[in-house]
Amino acid sequence: MPVTLLIEHLDQLYTVPGPSPRVGARQGDIVPILDGAVACDGPTVVAAGTTAQVRSQIGLDDNTTVLDGRGKSMVPGFVDPHTHVVFAGDRRDELRRRLAGADYAEIAAAGGGILSTVRATRQASEDELVSQTATRLAEMLRQGTTTAEAKSGYGLDTATEVRMLQVVGRLNTLQPIELAATFIGAHEVPPEFRGRQTDYVRLVIDEMTPAAAPYAEWCDVFCDRGFFTPEESRAILEAGVHAGMKPRIHADELASSGGSQVAAAVGARSADHLVRIDASGIESLRSAGVVATILPCAAFHLKLGQFAPARALIAAGVPVALATDVNPGGGFSPSMPFAMALACFAMNLTFEEALVASTINAAASLDRQDRIGSLEPGKQFDAVLVHGPAVNLLRVNATPIAGVYKKGVLC
């Protein structure tokens, strides 16, 4: 049967095949196919391999588009499994304060941080949120992201949290990036509940969670020093599971908070940040098969002074994924290639480990590894075309990306 698209004679083709997630030595055990080719029928990959192999497996007709990939390489489309891309307002004034020496806690105590964005987001209409978020998603798409997670968490009241999730649903129909919606009503305690955190946790569990569940695939919580305790976090995530959402968690970013142990206890698919995870937390993730989603852009922009221990996680057999943490206060980069560069040069990952973390393992952290994250027959043709060798993706502030495909369409 003829295919609709054939891209052949690629200098390098990284298919990043499963099974997934890739752990331990398999995290970096990928090699490029030289003189590679990919053929697809509409949105679906039909064949991938050398040009000779693919040519022998497919048919061509007058409706087949054939492209010459000489001078270029191809990798799977990037999956960004942790973002706060839906928000209103602007917190770049905090950046100046941070550069002058203020830390995360000081900015929050002065009325900045998450609560600053909450005020702006509560005031924004659904249409305003759609418009502003679409602009950010377009930036992410240009950087090769073809699937992303998108959280609520800047409403901290039932109406706004639901509105944010409805925005995610609308954006899934308005632009190319596929979005996985996550409810995180337990992102912070809002001002009206200051001093009454227990009451707010009850609101999240009893009112917000059932209201959000029809619009969200995932339930998340910020389990860390100064935010939600392990006991509160577990109760919230278990309520989310009861309502039909799958658990994931912000854990061990600001302190070794017990969040990794909560992730293991509730069967979370992913535990995220992990800047200050300890040996016990690493073992908890390994034993429960939790994906460690690390966010080097956040640690970089927040000036945390250290990054998650990626090498220790890989050595322990924990699958590692990468994400940008796009957000208004500490995730200023929409670029998965920048996250990869930080992972390589600040966290000592190899290029291959970072690529796996940005594709098949990131897909696994969102339970989408069966259809995205690699260029294998039967999966979606989501792909990034790169000028020259694929390692050019690590050239920060250059323009290595020659094209982005989503479901077989050049975006």
Strand content: 15-25%
Residue share in helix: 25-40%
- Mean pLDDT across every amino acid position: 96
Which geometry do the CA atoms define?
globular
Separation of the first and last Cα atoms: 26 Å
Per DSSP, the total helix count is 15
Q: What structural class do helix, strand and pairing data support? A: alpha/beta
Overall radius of gyration: 21 Å
Oligomer kind: single chain
Number of strands: 16
Largest sheet: 8 strands, mixed
> Unreliable segments (pLDDT under 50, ≥5 consecutive)?
none
How would you portray this structure in words?
There is one protein chain. This protein is an alpha/beta fold and 411 residues long. The protein is 36% helix and 22% strand. The chain is built from 15 helices and 16 strands. Strands 1, 2, 3, 4, 5, 14, 15 and 16 form an eight-stranded mixed sheet that branches. An eight-stranded parallel sheet has the order 6-7-8-9-10-11-12-13. Helix 6 packs parallel to helix 7 (197-212). The chain is globular and about 70 Å long.
